[in-house]
Amino acid sequence: MSLQQFINEAISPWMKEEGPDSDIVMSSRIRLARNFQNYPFPIISSEERMEEILQFFKEEYAGKSFRDYHQFEVVEMDKLQSVEKRVLVEKHLISPHLTEHSKHSASLISQNEQVSIMINEEDHIRIQLYFPGFQLDRALEQASQLDDWLEEKVDYAFDENRGYLTACPTNVGTGMRASVMMHLPALAMTQQITRMTPAINQLGLVVRGIFGEGSEALGNIFQISNQITLGKSEEDIVEDLHSIVKQLIDQERKARQALMHRSGVQLEDRVFRSYGVLKHSRIIESKEAAKCLSDLRLGIDLGFIDHIPKTILNELMVLTQPGFLQQYAKESLSPSERDVRRASLIRERLQLENKE
To answer: Is 106 helix (H, G, I), strand (E, B) or coil?
Structure first.
């Protein structure tokens, strides 16, 4: 398989699109946690009860379509190899938690991979829907409609006072996590993001890395999401997050302008040094690749480089993850072998742009 074919098949279609404020906001996501009424939560459930839920989804939703998201395919975890599970995690289609408890667990994934419904994860149902760029309101609207569609056949565990009941108390209430993935290189370079994070936390939001809780902010990519789900409506939660993200966007743009004004030549040099590393390296570790890709994307946004698409960061941050590297190589790779393969894949990808 050629690299171009692999990219076309590996990258979710929605990831190739640009949305509002996509120079800074890579994606917007709404995730809803739901459970069946009169069924124990997965952590204490019997295998028979979990199998009942899985069979229900296979019978009711496999091959069905919702709006423009095309047909849903049921992907059962215990039928996948470990590298295939890892690829789905790297594409943010499933959580690492789902792979750890794979028996009777699955994910309903829409054809365009914009919607994923995890089954028998921490909760019976985890609905997640993505949009490119800064589109929280649209994502919430579509997720709510998808939730209503499921509720036509599912009797949710719901309490009039507490809201939706979930396995983890922090999700009780709306059961919703709204999040945006942001590229904030200027705020990271100037150390402003470090100073802002405690203030953001005090507002009931949390700043995490690219793969959520406990992950590192590789490539200056940060995930901003709500912590509070009880006592606020879905609309209020999204409004609060929207306000903070808008301020971060403004601060990032001001920081970029300030860097250009104070040290434009040094910034341009940094961008092209990183570009040179990506174009010519024969070995590159994931952290260095993420740092250089962040610099490259910043250079594209600032107009230093104009022949490479803006989506290059989105693409290569996924394609250079361990699971994808091994899938492309069609073999298991050691960490050092992955570093060699990562460098090779990045060089090939950049060469594709030079040929066009």
So the answer is: strand
